């Protein structure tokens, strides 16, 4: 956007034209038509401020305090309550996952033991093929679950700690 201002005296106009001719690499006749005006350029400056964190930066806290004096205390109290809630929820989730893992292992052991008992009983009563198939399936299932579980743990740790 250009603003046009009329100079106060004619000498100022010719001086500006001479300066323009000497500093610009354009055709000197470009400014011949401009005798009573000067071109003013507008420069606009823009700045951006970025803050990352759970709490506002100190300047923002000061601004909040000017608007509402108790606002900083409220912000810190809410932050503390939210942190405490998050810690409690994480503790519950971890405890629940540990219990689920523990009970899952116990139930898997009981089921595997029952399959082995049924397999042995089948073999004792003359059903060798059925008992052998049940026993084989039981052992293969246990080995598969063990290997798959270890692979899952390895992938989970690798995902949490990439190097």
Protein architecture, described:
With 163 residues, the protein is mainly alpha-helical. The protein has 2 domains: 3-40, no CATH class; 58-160. 68% of the residues lie in helices and 4% in strands. It has 4 helices and 2 strands. The chain has helices spanning 10-23, 58-67, 71-124, 128-160, and strands at residues 3-5, 38-40. A two-stranded antiparallel ribbon has the order 1-2. Helix 3 runs antiparallel to helix 4 (128-160). The chain is elongated, with a radius of gyration of 41 Å.
Label this structure with key terms.
2 domains, 163 residues, two-stranded antiparallel sheet, mainly alpha, 2 strands
Short description:
The chain is mainly α and 163 residues long. Helices cover 68% and strands 4% of the residues.
Number of helices: 4
Assembly state (oligomeric): single chain
Order of helices and strands: EHEHHH
Radius of gyration: 41 Å
Write the layout of secondary structure elements.
Layout lengths: L2 E3 L4 H14 L14 E3 L17 H10 L3 H54 L3 H33 L3
Antiparallel strand pairs: 1-2
Helix pairs in contact: 3-4
């Amino acid at each position: 956007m250009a603003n046009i201002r009329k100079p106060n005296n004619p000498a100022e106009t010719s001086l500006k034209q001479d300066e323009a001719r000497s500093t610009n690499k354009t055709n000197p006749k470009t400014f011949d038509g401009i005798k009573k005006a000067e071109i003013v350029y507008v420069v606009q400056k823009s700045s951006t401020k970025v803050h990352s964190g759970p709490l506002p930066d100190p300047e923002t806290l000061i601004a909040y305090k000017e608007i509402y004096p108790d606002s900083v205390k409220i912000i810190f109290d809410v932050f503390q309550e939210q942190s405490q809630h998050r810690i409690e929820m994480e503790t519950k989730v971890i405890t629940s996952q540990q219990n689920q893992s523990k009970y899952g292992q116990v139930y898997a052991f009981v089921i595997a033991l029952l399959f082995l008992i049924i397999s042995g009983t089948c073999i004792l009563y003359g059903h060798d093929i059925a008992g052998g198939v049940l026993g084989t399936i039981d052992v293969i299932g246990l080995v598969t679950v063990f290997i798959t579980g270890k692979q899952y743990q390895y992938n989970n740790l690798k995902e949490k700690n990439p190097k």
